[in-house]
Amino acid sequence: MTDLFSSPVLRVEQPRVPPGVRARYKVYDGRGTLLAKVAEQDVPKLRQAFRSVLGDGGRRRTVYVENAQGAPLLALERDGTRATWVSTPHGGLIGSLRVGRFQHRFNLLDAAERPVGKLDGNRLARRFRVLDGHGAHVAQLDKKWKGLATEMLTTADRYTVEIFQPLYDPLRVLVAAAPIAIDLMLYESKDWPIGG
């Protein structure tokens, strides 16, 4: 049996909704078995309506990760569009993903802010080589193209993570959280053209 932290392939999918309403994801293994559900909780309807019209402006957002049976696994908190912290369900910090010098590169840091890896993306921020702390290419993260209308008008994003070898903690947890963190920082904060 595989879980979110042992599967060599992760597929992350979002439902098709207007940008900013309420972040939700499902995570599957390579065979299509549901491993985890991810969602913002307690987002008032008025705030969802405001986000759907004007975007979220890069404000703080928190999503919670549960396994397929509903047991809590992680919390991811985006602070603006530059960093996402990954914690245990009880608030213990595991590490963070931070935007590097360029928008398509991220540093993976442990709880003490020491580097444990990097996401080295292409300029479109759609393909990321995952490097460990020694610079070895240990995994690949790709954002799938869904078509212009879907990309611009909805949050129906899809990601695939292929992990080439067993990873140590906290790198393994940060790699599993990476597609959601990237989506929160780069795509969930996008504003509609009419927004501010």
Descriptive report:
The chain starts with 8 loop residues before the first strand and ends in a 9-residue tail after the last helix. The chain is 17% helix and 39% strand. It has a twelve-stranded antiparallel β-barrel. It has helices at residues 45-54, 148-153, 171-187, and strands spanning 9-13, 24-29, 34-39, 61-67, 72-79, 83-87, 93-99, 105-110, 115-121, 127-132, 137-144, 158-163. It has 196 residues and is of the alpha+beta class. It contains three helices and twelve strands. The longest helix has 17 residues, at 171-187.
Whole-number mean pLDDT: 83
Output the structural class.
alpha+beta
The tally of beta strands, per DSSP, is 12
Oligomer: single chain
Low-confidence stretches: 46-54, 191-196
Per DSSP, what share of the residues sits in E-state strands of 2 or more residues? 35-45%
Query: Largest sheet, described in full?
Result: 12 strands, antiparallel, barrel
SSE order: EEEHEEEEEEEEHEH
User: Could you estimate the helical fraction of the residues in percent?
Assistant: 10-25%
Number of helices: 3
Short characterization:
The protein is α+β, with helices and mostly antiparallel strands. The chain has helices at residues 45-54, 148-153, 171-187; strands spanning 9-13, 24-29, 34-39, 61-67, 72-79, 83-87, 93-99, 105-110, 115-121, 127-132, 137-144, 158-163.
Pick out its properties.
3 helices; alpha+beta; 196 residues; 12-stranded antiparallel β-barrel
